[in-house]
TrEMBL record:
Protein's recorded name: PA0069 family radical SAM protein
One Pfam family cited in the UniProt record for this chain: Radical_SAM
Gene3D superfamilies: 3.80.30.30
Entries under PANTHER family matching the protein: SLR0285 PROTEIN
Keyword Metal-binding in record: yes
The entry's keywords: Iron, Iron-sulfur, Metal-binding
SMART domains registered for this protein in UniProt: Elp3
CDD domains hit by this protein: Radical_SAM
Domain of life: Bacteria
Domain Radical SAM core: 66-302
């Protein structure tokens, strides 16, 4: 196993270590014994992103979670170069035998055959149209999309099938596909949500080191809105004592043209918990303990949970918004700000009636 020794923040990366995944036989910790390996800092600072290809077995992932507002997920990539330290998808790299730490943001996998698989699945007469979330796990407009173009090819298939979908992203690359998205929006087939965690540039640079800057994401919101595309803003995740500018983000997004908004609280499943605590100690050591105590409060951790080192509750109905006093306070702040700004007055309804499997078949139906 690779170790970062001594532990230090890496420019342009969210994680600072190749933390062991939960299936590894041995879990090791780096420590400074005074014999620092020569050149290790330079080697890790220059850590390069690599791309692997895989043949996916299916395109659409179905879920039965009552916490999610969509029925199908569609994800062209595994791992994400944005490197958001809080990303709930980091533990998925464990199934590949990779570290949810630096591997997650440097060893990326592209699903080469996904557009063909999507075409096949949408061509089946048994398929029932329901909104698809493009980028439900990892960002479909992360930097490699500029060269790979998988997301655009998926949109082309969805457009041909007239199948409704939405996009959630931190990437300004979504603007590249306005030529596809704007006509679909006029037909009620697409909506886009731009994640803006904070307006604080330094905090965003540390939290989400390779995602677009906050001001750039606001420009993306404006560009999408001006193109007539229903656009919303995601304030996810809310982290106590860090991104405390919820109202300012909502105001800036509304001014740019957003009409919808939602938020979630910080989630710390599996390896995300030690990675996030590690990040706090590196970047905000003066408030690390305070942040973690409030996160535990948000997820309803009792004395026994805390004694066992638990900081997250994955229960349906609780994991996204938390529970208790601090959760209620966040919900009230959000509702008041949205009401004042005119957000969420009307729900975006995507049209499922236009889809038909024959649209993707060589011989199209006349009916």
């Amino acid at each position: 196993m690779r170790l970062l020794q001594p532990l230090q923040a890496l420019k342009g990366r969210g994680s600072a270590s190749f933390i062991a995944h939960r299936f590894a036989r041995d879990a090791r910790e780096a420590f400074d014994d005074g014999w620092e390996e020569a050149g290790s800092e330079e080697a890790l600072a220059a850590l390069q992103t690599t791309l692997e290809w895989e043949q996916a077995r299916s395109a659409l992932s179905r879920h039965d979670s009552p916490d999610l507002p969509f029925h199908f997920g569609l994800n062209p990539y595994r791992g994400c170069e944005h490197g958001c330290i809080y990303c709930y998808a980091r533990p998925t790299h464990s199934y590949l035998g990779y570290s949810p730490g630096l591997d997650f943001e440097t060893r990326l996998i592209a699903k080469e055959n996904l557009p063909q698989l999507l075409r096949t699945e949408l061509s089946r007469p048994s398929h029932v149209a329901a909104p698809v979330m493009l980028g439900s796990v990892t960002d479909c407009y992360q930097p490699i999309e500029r060269e790979v173009g998988l997301t655009r090819r998926l949109i082309e298939v969805l457009a041909e099938a007239r199948h409704p979908f939405s996009i959630v992203t931190k990437g300004s690359g979504v603007e590249r596909d306005l030529d596809l998205l704007a006509p679909l929006a006029r037909q009620g087939l697409v909506a886009v949500y731009v994640t803006i965690t904070t307006l604080q540039p330094e905090l965003a640079r540390r939290l989400e080191p390779r995602a677009a800057a906050p001001h750039r994401r606001l420009r993306t919101v404006r560009t999408l809105a001006q193109a007539g595309i229903p656009v919303g803003v995601s304030l996810a995740p809310q982290i106590p004592f860090l991104n405390d500018d919820m109202e300012q983000v909502l105001a800036a997004a509304a001014e740019a043209g957003a009409r919808q908004a939602f938020y979630t609280v910080l989630r710390l499943p599996w390896e995300v918990a030690p990675l996030f605590e590690q990040w706090l100690q590196l970047h905000y050591p003066d408030r690390a303990a305070r942040v973690m105590e409030r996160v535990r409060d948000l997820h309803g951790m009792d004395a026994q949970d805390r004694a066992q080192g638990r900081s997250y509750q994955s229960r349906f109905g609780q994991r996204m918004k938390g529970t208790g006093l601090w959760s209620d306070m966040l919900a009230q702040r959000f509702a008041l700000a949205c009401r004042r700004l005119g957000l969420n007055r009307e729900r975006v309804q995507l049209d499922c009636s236009q889809y038909h499997p024959s649209l993707l078949q060589a011989q199209r139906s006349l009916f």
